[in-house]
Amino acid sequence: MRSSTRARITLAGVALAALAAVAATAARAASIFDFDVWMRAIDKHSVEVQKNIEARKTEAAVADAQELARLYGLMEAFFVADGHTPDAVDMSRSGKAFADAIPAALAAKDYDAAAKAALDLSHACNDCHDVHKPFQ
Asked: Most Cβ neighbours (<10 Å): which of 21, 41, 101, 130?
């Protein structure tokens, strides 16, 4: 009887450990898929913000830039939590800084500075993809 109880406790412990491992893997997979969704959204908004700046659609460009800043913030948090190298975190911070610069430039009616920040942001995307894109 005693060995039967011990076996059940051991089995329960193993089952609990296996369940925890599956849950951790599922949570990790979801974050990678979220990251991929964020990158696709960044690509879309990066193109749109450039078009909106060129067309002098300030309100739309500001909205795109604010969404880009939000997405880059999410990516920074992802890289920090996932234990990526410091350059991945720095690239995310740089992308957020470029996005944050766009509304300020547009508020000052400096379309050239806004366009440069948007172009720099686009180049930052490519630099990061070369090293850190999860699905190649």
From this structure: 101
